[in-house]
Design a protein that fits this description.
The chain has about 80 residues and is an all-alpha fold. It has three helices and no strands.
Length: about 80
């Protein structure tokens, strides 16, 4: 697999995963399985897991943290 193909594949996997997780959280909230606090805890735990991995040379962890932090901002 070429470098460009690998990057494209990795990006597709990331987008797919993010879409599935967002869809799952949204569905569980809509069905009353998760509360707003539960949703916040999910994203906080995701941040913790990323922080435990440590930083990487390419800034991917930093970017991931920033994306998750967007979900923790007050909606309004």
């Amino acid at each position: 697999m070429s470098k460009d193909a690998a990057i494209t594949h990795t990006s597709a996997v990331g987008i797919t995963t993010a879409a599935l997780v967002a869809s799952l959280v949204s569905t569980l909230r809509r069905k009353g399985v998760l509360t707003e606090r539960d949703e916040i805890e999910l994203y906080e735990f995701a941040l913790l897991l990323i922080e435990q991995q440590g930083d990487d040379a390419f800034g991917v962890s930093k970017m991931a943290r920033e994306l998750i932090e967007q979900h923790l901002k007050p909606k309004g």
